[in-house]
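Side project, low priority. Logging it here so it doesn't get lost.
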Amino acid sequence: MDTPYQPPMPGTFKPRTTGLAIASVICGPLGFFTLGLSGIAAVITGHLALSAIKKANGALAGRGMSITGLITGYLSISILGIAVLAGLATPVIMKSKIQAERVESMSNVGQIGEALFRFEEEYGTFPSDELAAEEAKFAGLTGVRVLDQLEAADLLPDVDRMLAVGKLCKGDWLYFPGMSTGSHPNAPVLISPEIDGKWMILRVDGSTTIESEAALKAMDLSKAVAIPAPPKPR
């Protein structure tokens, strides 16, 4: 005689955890270490697992694991997206900063140039060590402080602020003392620190140009005074 069918006692049936849920919960956290690639797998397997669990009517488990995999998967993908956008934006931001530094440096060179020409109108020459020995008000303003004569002559309120540069600038200012408008019109008077391989050059004729390293090497810089560029205040 056949044994009658006995249904399983309540609480004794344990649904099988779907492998898709396991794959999702494993791939999700790995997405943070694989640039989001494992995160994509976690999202796909997580959604498939939830769909399979729903259709199984209780025969499959792993809903919590699937949700965990989905959350970590989406997070890793979003971080990847942010990283990609940041990578694309960085060159643009850097270019903008370089341009801003260049514009400000050009403006400062122009203001210093105007002060130099007004200085020459009054003293017959641009600031120099020799003039400091003759004029009591310029005593001690020699060498790297020679441009401070412009401030002492009340032609610039703050020379250090004019010479201050940002982090993208490299090197010193180069000043050619003792020059005047009677010198060669193309002769350099003041050269800015380097900004992305370019230098601003103020010339005797009052023009300011942006030059490359090749143009700088063609100049005689032996008579220039290297004036350290103060850091721009934060």
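Brief comment: The longest strand covers residues 199-203.
Revisit when time allows.
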